[in-house]
UniProtKB/TrEMBL annotation:
GO terms for molecular function: nuclear import signal receptor activity. This is Hikeshi-like domain-containing protein. It comes from Aquilegia coerulea (Rocky mountain columbine). One of its GO terms (biological process) is protein import into nucleus. Residues 133-185 form the Hikeshi-like C-terminal domain. Pfam families: Hikeshi-like_C (PF21057), Hikeshi-like_N (PF05603). InterPro entries: Hikeshi-like_C (IPR048364), Hikeshi-like_N (IPR008493), OPI10 (IPR031318). Belongs to the OPI10 family.
Amino acid sequence: MFGVVFPNRSFPIDISTFSQIDTFHWILDMNTFVGEAYDEIKEICIFLLNNFTLPPNKALAVYLQSPGSPFVFCGAITLARPSAVLSLTWPQPGCGQLQITSSESVPVSAKIGISVEDITTLPTLDVSAQKKIEHLALKVGENLFNFMQSFCGVDGNRLVVPMDILDRWFKKFQEKATRDPEYLKSFVL
């Protein structure tokens, strides 16, 4: 059905390495590979195998669980997106947002859960990409604010900036990006 690879850490692992919970849920105990160093695993590549067809409205969702925390959604693959490299942002032990099953007791090891789910119920196919975009937007906004602040004046309880401040900032931003290709990369996680 599916396989996974931990880039630079493992050979391809097929579904037989996972414990099957029921027809639509599988769990991989990270103690099998790394013991307590689970948080050193930063990426997972998940892929559909050639002979498996996932229904068009379904996805294989990937969840992470640190010891003592519930499962947290990480990303998903679909028939239209049959493979993905997902960044693993492990939840803090004892913290979390979304559980894969409510019948599990507090885990003693980190786990990766795979679940067949409706695409429409998933927030996004790649949580880490969404977080990178949000981070980029915040960093660009912070850059603009800092630039504007250096030209601000105060009028009572209002900040006053020159009318052309956005044009000046954007021109400076573009010039830096053109001169230094690494400049924009500094805004990403």
